[in-house]
Structure formats: C-alpha cells, structure tokens
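Q: Fold this one first, please.
A: Sequence and structure below.
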Amino acid sequence: MRILIVEDEPLLRAQLVQAVTAAGHVAQEAADGLQAHFLGEVEDFDAVVLDLGLPQLDGLSVLRRWRAAGRAMPVLILTARSSWQEKVAGIDAGADDYLAKPFHTEELLARLRALLRRASSHASAQWQCGPIWLDTRQARTLVDGQPLQLTSHEFMLLAQLMQRKGEVLTRTGLSEHLYPGGSERDSNTIEVFIARLRRKLPAGCIETVRGLGYRLAEPAGTGA
C-alpha cells in the first residue's frame, strides 16, 4: 500500500516513515500543508497520516480541499491536542480516524490497518484467494497452509493484487504502489516481480491481460 505521511517535525516524520515501511508499505512524506495538498491532488494513495499543525497550510484546510476535490482516500489525522472540539472538527472535515499525540507507533499502524481494511471491503487482516492467505498484520503469506518466503517488494505486489483480486491492475499502477513518488518508476520491473511471484504461487493465479496488465484469480477448482 502507498501511504502519505504528512508531519512537519522531522524526527517524528522519519520515525513514521520507517515504521510504515517496516510494516510492508511504501511511504511518501510531506513536511508542510502545501506540499501535502499537491501530492494528494496528483498522486494516488491508499491512506494518509495527516498532522493538523502544519506550516503554510494547516491540516484541516488540506483535508477540506481534498474532500472538495473528490479525493476519497482514508485519512488518519494527528493532533497535538486531545480536545474534543479539534477531534470533531477533523471528523467534520472528512477525516476517517484521529490519534492524539503522544501515541504508540503500534496503535497508529493498527488504525492504519483498520482504515485500509474498510477501504478495501476486507473485514479481516487476513486476505484469501484460493489456497493463498496473506496476513497484512504480520506481513506473512501462506500457500496451502505452508509459509511462503517473499521479498518486501514481492509481498507488496501480492498484497496489491490480493486487495483488488479479480480486477485488472496496470503495470504503471502497480509500480506506483511499490516505489515512493521520488523514485524512478520502471514498469518493466513489475514484469520481473510478476515472474518471480508466478514461480512461487500455484499455476494460474496471476493472469496477464494483454495490453492492460495483470489480475489475481483463483485457480480452477478452488474457492475463497
């Protein structure tokens, strides 16, 4: 998943990026409201962690502008205050959840997982497609009950396919979910990771839709 981290305090921002990356996501960061607003307008993110006390443009204004423009990605707001008025203002502006500082990183990650599940209509942290099980909480994968060893990029790619199983995902779209916005995105690299996954997964799980991209399908004779 691609997560946008918006926090003006450098140390906390670095800690959040590290935690989100270690959890198997791709993290992109912004240090002020104007940069955050721009990234949220032009990039696709699966979720956003948004501090309210931002320079140049405050977090509530950023969120209101995103929602007014039809940007519907889940947003978890961070607030330095625990007043109920600020929480209500955040929810009214379109936030999906909030977390008051100081907080434990584990709680932030748990709240992000919940937002991602709701956004993708997955009620559980464990996703299934035929014999494949993917646990987003523990970042592990099973095939027919046996652990499957995947690299971080292979896991993120499989998670994206699992999240939207049955849908055709383009090479460009998959690439954007594997690399931060500032990194070079080479869609040809996706072909390499797809080939690696196919060698590790049951035959027929990943289908190529010529000219469009790839989709995850259940092998014949299996059911979710």
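Q: Good. Now the second chain.
A: Here it is, same layout.
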Amino acid sequence: MITARVPLLLLVGVPVVPLVPSPWLGALAAVALPLALAAADLLAAAPLSRLTAGRDGARVAWLGETVTVRLTLTNGSPRRLRCLLRDAWVPSAGAGPYSHRLDLAPGEIRTVETVLTPTRRGDRSAVRVSIRSYGPMGLAYRQSRRRVADARTPPWTLRVLPRFASRRYLAEKLARLRVLDGTVAIRGRGQGTEFDALREYVVGDDVRSIDWRASARRSDMVVRSWRPERDRRVLCVLDTGRTSAVRVGDEPRLDAAIDASLLLAWIAARAGDRVDLLAVDTAVRASVAGAGKRAWMWRLVSALAPLEPALVETDFGLVAGEVMRRERKRALVVLFTALEPAALGEGLLPVLPRLAARHRVVVASVQDPILSRLAEGSAPDDADPVDRVYAAAAAHRALAERDRVRAALARHGVEVVDAPVESFASRVADAYLAMKATGRL
C-alpha cells in the first residue's frame, strides 16, 4: 500500500511536465518515477511474517482503577522494522495511547505500554494488534490481512471487578459488629443468642443473668455473658432479570445490588457466619459457596464481575427451588430485586409462603429517584403543564403499587429494605446487624 507521500510526489512532478520536449514522456516520467520509488520502498520494508508479539501485565483491576498492560515485539527479520503499531481494545477498556511508532533493528526486542482505565466491570478483551511496516522512504507499507492479524494478536483479557463503593461503610459496620461480638459485653439472655462465658458480677448487670449454681461453687456472684449467634447461614440472591437492567442514578440496579451484597458478605463473614451467593434469572448465572476460606472473598468478587442483566422475566419458581435445595437448614435469604408489582405479584408471591416457612427472607430493593421527583412535580422545565400533572399522577400510582407490594410481603413475614442508591448498601447491612443483635437469624 502507498502512503500520502506518493500523491505529493506526483503533484511536485506536474509543473515539470511542460518543460520537457515531449509532454507525454514528461507525464509518463512524472507518474512512473514516484510509483517506481514506492515499489522499491515496499520491497525494502521489513516483512511482518517474522515479527512475534507477547503480552504481560495486569490481569485484574477494580472499576475506575488505572492499570498497565505491556506488549513485547521481537523483530526476527534481517531488515530494520519501521512501523506504526495500533493496539486495539474494546472501547470500555479505556485504552491509550491509541498507537505507537517504533523503529526496531534486526533482532531487537521492544516493549510498549498500553494504559487501561476501564469504565465498565466485566471482562475487557484486547481486540487486535495492527502493524504497518514502512519502507525507508515512507512511501509504501506492508500490512497483514485482518484474519492474519487476529491470529497473531496475543490474547489478553482484563477482568474488571465491581467498584465496591460501599467499602467506605466497613469501618462503621465492623465497629458495630465488634460491640455485638463482645468488645462491649452483651448482658441479657436475648432470644437466639449463645452462651459465651462466666464473669464476676458488676453493678448494673441484669440479675436474670446470674448463674446461681456457679455462684454457689465459687462463693462469689457470677453472671453469664452472651454473644450473638455464630455459624449461621446467609444467602444473597441477585435477580439478574430485566428489572436489574433499569438504571437507577448513574448505574444499573444490578450494580447497586452487587455493591450491597459485597458489603453484606464481608460483614457476615467477619461475624462468623457462612455466606453463599446466587445470581438467577431463567438460569443460574453465578454461584459461590463457602465463606471462611482464605480466597473466598476474592472468588466472590471475581464471580460477580462478569454478571450482566438479561432481558428476560425472572423465574422466581427457579429461585425458590434453588434456595430450598441449597439451604437445608434455616438461613437468612436476602433477595436483591425490584419492588415491581408485575414481576413480584405474579412471580415471587405465589412461591413466597413455602420459602418464608423455612427461611428468614429479606427483600432488598433500590428506590428510583425519578419516581420521587416526578411525584413532587419536578418535571423538566420545558414540559407542558398537563404533562406535568399526568407524570405526577403516574408516579404516585407507581409508588402506591410499591407500597401494596411491600404490605403483601410483610404479611408473609418478609422484611423489606427499600432505600435510595446512596444509602442502599448501608441499610442492607444495618438490617443484618439488627437481626444479629436480636438473634433473629
């Protein structure tokens, strides 16, 4: 292929044509000379068949984090390689710089760096390494066909983990957990709590905690201390159906659910409970079991990273069946879904009685701020007054339907966490800690 320099040479030769005795010969020479030079330049360009490439660098990154991936080129040709390299990635990988100009001597090895700042979680892949090998004069270049370039491109996938913005609440929630767990003594029996140890009576202790037999043996007043229940089971169920694709604020509802489930799983694991996770729509999309292992949290984050909403109606019968099959003992089941009357009324409510009979169920949903604004009459400034009224009425109706769904869930003993996206993860964690403190797990 020729470069833009060849037409420039042709334009330079045009004024010379009238000065030659034979204009035809002059025109032929003005055209043939640049083409001959381009052909010679093409033959002198280094072949790409003996060029090898390899990659190394980051394999995993958090969403919004900047990482570097290195591409190493080895010029196996006996000719000098003057090339333009383009390392193409999917757009959401945030790759840059777009291209690199290289000059490699025969046998030389050169490494170029591509900086990635991903804008979406999941697997972000390298697409193609395209290389143009230029001749010494820069008049022509060699470039492989797309199929050959794809075959020679070293594969690389960067797994982008969820942002986990709710980790800012970890210090506060873990401090509350330490209070429940014994840093501050829990005095009083409390339903569902476990015996911890005997200690001497101090002023202010509940007299109902006195162990009279132990006091008689020691000839001193001793009381029982209690701690929250341990080794309970917590199952986070993510609804990845069509309702999870709705954008709430700046992110899909599924991303808010992932963030809240990570915070809840971290706290529950630190509290000594067993945490499992399930992502379901019409099939099981992800399943992570077994908290307490060293790499469990890493497996959980890695499994959540590639999850994407599916534009299908969630099969809540499958959800209930999977929960009942996996959790034989009583467990806390936190279902991250939307309080949508159509989806829950026809899908979840029919299977909820047998699910709530065995397990403690919490339904966690993110509030849509647009509904609240429309209900308050905050329509766009250029909206027609009649449209404002209809929009406010529709918003009030949607909020009333959500209230009816919440009341129907409460009649089955289901606790509902319905909060804005800014405080959603914190509210879910608070609900768990409240159950932990009162022994309701």
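Q: Anything worth noting on the second one?
A: The first strand starts at residue 51 and ends at 57.
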